[in-house]
């Protein structure tokens, strides 16, 4: 095909869509089903109606091909587990008794059986359920969901393309089932899995699918030659099938790198590639492999992970270059629209001129359609859209929100000295010991105490105007008094105020920093029926006034023991927000760090001797490709040091991390130059203590000895055993005693008993020293 005819054929599509519905109908129906208030038939009807209205809306917006099969009651990786029949042994009885209840049993567990493990979907904040496979796994095709949803869309008269998790990614995301040797490599099951995919593909073709999309995002990570070979074999075999639809192999979240030539050579009819962020490298890489002659290229030029309007002219120029490199070029978002909220036009709190800079799923769909039209018919066909887009981009670039000269002056004035404490750790620790006078193995907690029903009611009452600020603060103070009194009685050494004033550790600060926007309906699926509303880093960041000092000093006024100030760190503030796309992340991090630094300094000036800056997300935003990691870690650790670098040697800086294995970032943890770190460790039996020791980590550390993700109360003996294990790696004068993470999701009775046991364990070991 010539470039001209390739352009004329340009089509618009997406790989997936938010599932919950405009008013979170799906969440309500699924949770209603769990509580027994909604019947299975009603749930299915609600779901089918949501799918229909989504497809209609996509088609009405001008999308030529709608995705099917991306819908899910809980998670699309779990749906894939069902599709290939890889039901774990412990869930089989439940699935056989009732498919829907069995499905939710795998997702959430029951009294009798544990759920599948949940983990993050690449570097997004979406969580999937990890397949559990072993040498005995027998796959069996179950195409009912995929075929059913395809038929629904075809019945509406639409062109539909089923979207499946590809076989290689499915296996690469899996882990050895419980009881299987940990060395087992799920990828060895590929030969058994491919016939199942072949069967599903044949069923989809029989049901009317012309194309099927197989998602292989795992191929954008660094892959071994054996893994690349497996990918080559998978698509050679699937490509060689005779009874199959055309295959579109999709990748997203980063560049394919060495997997690009593998897929380019595979006997499939199309590739879908990301052209945003670091994946923009695909442009040159495609040319280097000689393009995709004879293939369909779906170009993800609209960022599917962020909420900013597209630069339509720039995208058109990328698309124009691609025309020469493939047989046909279609336009899409870089990944499923699952990762953005539904509709930016529904945000009453965002000023109209700023709302024009935002594109959620609906607006992105319009952008994709516009780009496809521009590609097919020329820029004159979209002249009005281009003019409006140009004006909106210009207004964003020139806005005082995005360019605050005083913030720019402050960030420009940052020197290397600002990112260093005034004394080295070895000196600081002496000053801190003299000031704090703590026993060996000091006890503390990570910050939050249970978020009780009363606290949630107080927040709701405040929001609805049923109570005023004064009454709200009175209720928070009462909670702080209770939290302090409990900790004193339990004998904890370094206290916290309990964070009762925070609904969310990022949102709380975002609401108090200039430059951040909050949405009212910007819900994004985190996992299952849990949705979050990430704030938006829209402009230059500054702190109009102190954010936490009032609560920390109030708590400190109630006790003679040190109360730890509690802040969310700059990297986590970025990781759990939508970030700016008009400047490097490092610049945004530096602005946030400077605002937090003012808070740290104010806490110190108010007499706070211990300040914790949480960075639970430091590991999770690590770039997918190893080559990009040193650059990320350099700015991330610098932002932390800029936040904490302004305090006196005698002020003790803590940090906290969870949700990950930290073995590969111990050097970065060391580079934070914090005085004390608390880490999630209870489930891994103090493994991290050993890793810190092997690295020669010189500072104080509190590997968690109470797994707060479970209602279980650890006994004093159990906590003491873990501490003894910790002592094998970390000497007594540097070991802290604390839970794994904050206690906000737990109930008071468990928290009381567990913390009392922790104190008992610490005292027992101190007596032995
Ligand atoms: N300080 C926070 C808390 O205790 C830390 C939470 C986290 O690490 N996710 O809730
Ligand atoms: Zn944590």
UniProtKB/TrEMBL annotation:
Which residues are involved in binding Zn(2+)?
A: 656, 658, 680, 741
Pfam families in alphabetical order: Meth_synt_1 (PF08267), Meth_synt_2 (PF01717)
Q: How is the cofactor bound?
A: Binds 2 Zn(2+) ions per subunit. Binds 1 zinc ion per subunit.
**Reactions listed under catalytic activity:** 5-methyltetrahydropteroyltri-L-glutamate + L-homocysteine = tetrahydropteroyltri-L-glutamate + L-methionine
- Ranges for domain Cobalamin-independent methionine synthase MetE C-terminal/archaeal come to 441-763
Q: Which cofactor does it need?
A: Zn(2+)
Spell out the molecular function terms from Gene Ontology.
Answer: 5-methyltetrahydropteroyltriglutamate-homocysteine S-methyltransferase activity; zinc ion binding
The residues annotated as the active site are 709 (proton donor)
Enumerate the UniProt keywords alphabetically: Amino-acid biosynthesis, Metal-binding, Methionine biosynthesis, Methyltransferase, Repeat, Transferase, Zinc
Which residues are listed for Zn(2+) 2 binding in this entry?
A: 658
UniProt-annotated binding residues for 5-methyltetrahydropteroyltri-L-glutamate: 24-27, 120, 125, 576, 620
What Enzyme Commission number(s) appear in the record? Answer: 2.1.1.14
Q: What residues bind L-methionine, as annotated?
A: 446-448, 499, 614
Q: Residues in domain Cobalamin-independent methionine synthase MetE N-terminal?
A: 13-323
| Source domain of life | Bacteria
Q: Give me the ranges of the annotated region Disordered.
A: 1-23, 397-421
Q: Where is the composition biased (Low complexity)?
A: 1-12
Question: What EC class does the entry list?
Answer: transferase
Give the record's pathway.
Amino-acid biosynthesis; L-methionine biosynthesis via de novo pathway; L-methionine from L-homocysteine (MetE route): step 1/1
Q: In which family does this protein belong, per the annotation?
A: Belongs to the vitamin-B12 independent methionine synthase family.
Q: What does this protein do?
A: Catalyzes the transfer of a methyl group from 5-methyltetrahydrofolate to homocysteine resulting in methionine formation.
Q: What is this protein called?
A: 5-methyltetrahydropteroyltriglutamate--homocysteine methyltransferase
């Amino acid at each position: 095909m010539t470039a001209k005819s390739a352009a004329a054929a340009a089509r618009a599509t997406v790989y997936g869509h938010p599932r919950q519905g405009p008013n979170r109908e799906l969440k309500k129906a699924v949770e209603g089903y769990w509580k027994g208030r909604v019947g299975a038939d009603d749930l299915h009807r609600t779901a089918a109606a949501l799918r229909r209205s989504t497809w209609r809306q996509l088609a009405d917006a001008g999308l030529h091909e709608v995705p099917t099969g991306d819908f899910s009651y809980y998670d699309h990786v779990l749906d894939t587990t069902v599709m290939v029949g890889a039901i774990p042994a412990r869930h089989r009885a439940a699935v056989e008794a009732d498919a829907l209840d069995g499905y939710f049993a795998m997702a959430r567990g029951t009294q009798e059986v544990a759920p599948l493990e949940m983990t993050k979907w690449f570097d997004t904040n979406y969580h999937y359920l990890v397949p559990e496979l072993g040498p005995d796994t027998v796959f069996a095709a179950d195409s009912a969901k995929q075929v059913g949803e395809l038929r629904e869309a075809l019945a509406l008269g639409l062109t539909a393309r089923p979207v499946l998790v590809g076989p290689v990614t499915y296996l690469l995301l899996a882990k050895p089932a419980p009881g299987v040797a940990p060395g087992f490599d799920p990828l060895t099951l590929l030969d058994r899995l491919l016939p199942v995919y072949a069967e599903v593909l044949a069923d989809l073709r029989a049901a009317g699918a012309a194309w099927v999309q197989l998602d292989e995002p795992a191929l954008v990570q660094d892959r071994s030659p054996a893994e690349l070979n497996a990918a080559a074999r998978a698509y050679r075999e699937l490509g060689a099938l005779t009874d199959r639809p055309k295959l579109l192999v999709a990748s997203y979240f980063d560049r394919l790198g060495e997997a690009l030539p593998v897929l380019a050579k595979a006997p499939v009819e199309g590739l879908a590639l990301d052209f945003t962020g670091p994946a923009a490298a695909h442009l040159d890489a495609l040319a280097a492999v000689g393009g995709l002659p004879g293939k369909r290229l779906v170009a993800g030029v609209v960022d599917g992970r962020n909420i900013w309007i597209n630069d339509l002219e720039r995208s058109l120029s990328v698309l124009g270059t691609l025309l020469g490199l493939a047989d046909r070029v279609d336009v899409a978002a870089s990944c499923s629209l699952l990762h953005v909220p539904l509709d930016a036009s529904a945000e009453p709190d965002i000023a109209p001129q700023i709302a024009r800079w935002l594109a959620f799923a609906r607006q992105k769909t319009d952008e994709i359609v516009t780009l496809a039209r521009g590609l097919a018919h020329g820029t004159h066909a979209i002249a009005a859209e281009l003019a409006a887009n140009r004006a909106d981009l210009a207004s964003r670039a020139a806005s005082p929100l995005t360019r605050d000269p005083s913030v720019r002056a402050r960030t420009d004035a940052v020197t290397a000295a600002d990112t260093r404490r005034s004394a080295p750790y070895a000196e600081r620790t002496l000053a801190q010991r003299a000031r704090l006078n703590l026993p060996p193995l000091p006890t503390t907690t990570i910050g939050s105490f249970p978020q009780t029903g009363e606290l949630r009611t107080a927040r709701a009452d405040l929001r609805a105007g049923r109570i005023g600020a004064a009454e709200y603060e009175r209720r928070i103070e009462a909670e702080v008094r209770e939290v302090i009194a409990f900790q004193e009685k339990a004998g904890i050494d370094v206290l916290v105020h309990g964070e009762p004033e925070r609904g969310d550790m990022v949102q709380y600060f975002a609401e108090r920093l200039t430059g951040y926007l909050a949405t009212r309906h910007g819900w994004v699926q985190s996992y299952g029926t849990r949705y979050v509303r990430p704030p938006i880093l829209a402009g230059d960041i500054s702190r109009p006034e102190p954010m936490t000092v009032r609560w920390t000093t109030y708590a400190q006024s109630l006790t003679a023991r040190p109360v730890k100030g509690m802040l969310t760190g700059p990297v986590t503030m970025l990781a759990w927000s939508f970030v700016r796309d008009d400047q490097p992340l490092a610049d945004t991090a530096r602005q946030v760090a400077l605002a937090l630094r003012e808070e740290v300094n104010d806490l110190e000036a108010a007499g706070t001797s211990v300040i914790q800056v949480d960075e639970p997300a430091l590991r999770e935003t690590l770039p997918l490709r190893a080559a990009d990691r040193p650059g990320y870690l350099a700015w991330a650790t610098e932002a932390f040091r800029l936040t904490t670098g302004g305090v006196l040697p005698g002020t003790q800086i803590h940090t906290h991390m969870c949700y990950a294995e930290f073995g590969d970032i111990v050097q970065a943890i060391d580079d934070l130059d914090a005085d004390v770190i608390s880490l999630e460790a209870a489930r891994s039996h103090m493994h991290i203590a050993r890793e810190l020791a092997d690295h020669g980590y010189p500072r104080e550390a509190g590997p968690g000895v109470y797994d707060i993700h479970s209602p279980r109360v650890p006994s004093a003996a159990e906590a003491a055993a873990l501490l003894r294990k910790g002592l094998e790696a970390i000497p007594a004068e540097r070991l802290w005693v604390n839970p794994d993470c904050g206690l906000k999701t737990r109930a008071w009775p468990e928290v009381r008993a567990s913390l009392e046991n922790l104190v008992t364990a610490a005292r027992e070991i101190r007596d032995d020293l």
